[in-house]
Amino acid sequence: MIKGLYVAGTNMTTNMHKMDVISNNLANVNTTGFKKDTFELESFNNRLISRTGGSNLPFDAAKVNVTQTQSGEEFTVSTNTGFFRVDTPNGVHYDTNMKFFKDQDGFLRTIYKNVGGSIDPLKGNLVLGQNGPINVGDETFEINERGVVLVGGAEVDGLVTQGLPNIIGTMSAGIKGYSVMTNHEQGQLEMTNSKFDVAIKGDGFFNIRTEDGDFLSRNGSFTVNGFSELTNLDGGIVLGLDGPIMVESENFTINEFGEVIQDGEITDKLSLTAYTNIADLYKVGTSYYKTVKEMTGEQVEFSGEIIQGFLEKSNTDSITEMISLLEMNRNYETSQKVITTIDEMIAKAVTELGRV
Fold first, then answer.
1. Using CA atoms, how far apart are residues 83 and 64, in angstroms rounded to an integer?
2. 166 and 52, same structural domain?
């Protein structure tokens, strides 16, 4: 029963964080260029449950049957006997199901995906075999029905661990959130007919200079300040190839390549950047982004399209977010009732035992 209190408690805490993220998405549903966030979850390490008293059941390795499926570089395995082990920052995780891939160094590692669905090669936890982390090098490997990893027909290590003979199963201690991830899907383009409104179609960001430094942004709602500089509505200077973009003519247009044309001549070009791994960016406020110090991808040239007279709307769907918020609220209330019920059961058990 005490275990149930922790499971329900972690669920309530996690739902509170998820509701905060969803509420922020709803608050910015009309913010130009805003990208919605998602709160990613994972379970705490599964802990082995041992039999206290009674007879120890022997482990029969011959009865181990591992089933597997493969999709691209992802492997999914499950076992009917024993457990798979994963080395996590919080200890060894035991489970009867597991997804993994081979990282760039040849180690088998659990799956950690970025927002775009690609596997992050620098994240995920090491899969443990009988002799520690499993490394298959650069060779093609396979897994037989007993969970043995083979390279060129030779056995490397076994995935399935029997543990102790008196183990009866595993139990999770609840769930937790590990990351707030940003969904960078394209938002709808809305026509404004303003020559200073610019939208990006495709991957890429404007470069904006502020008093706090240079930032990236998808918000193309621009204006002109008193120094004839093209700025956003917060006063940040829109950068071109030669620094701040100067607007010195009423005959001002920006073509699909981001080139600034005044009186029929190209005077500058919007500074636009894109990244091979969008997960290298993190939010600063509601419309700015910065890159992490240790990028896993690369900065590349902009290959999208610039559309003048349009703005990119938020990619938040208010109806979907409202439904998710209601679901989180119901989930929170359910966990609250579970805690109340367990508390009443504990109180009753103490009372009855006291009478005995």
1. 10
2. yes
Rounded distance between C-alpha atoms, residue 234 and residue 286, angstroms: 12
Question: Are both 101 and 159 inside the same structural domain?
Answer: yes
Total domains, the chain? 3
Range of the domain at 296: 190-312
- The model carries a pTM of 0.69
Rounded to a whole number, what is the distance in angstroms from the first to the last CA of the chain? 21
Instruction: Say if residues 221 and 32 touch (Cβ distance below 8 Å).
Output: yes
Determine the Cα–Cα distance for residues 1 and 341; give it in Å rounded to an integer: 10
Q: Which residue has the higher pLDDT, 224 or 65?
A: 224
CA distances, 27 to each of 265, 286, 321 (Å): 42, 10, 11
Q: What mean pLDDT is reported for the chain?
A: 85
Q: Are residues 288 and 355 in the same domain?
A: no
Question: Do 89 and 144 belong to one domain?
Answer: yes
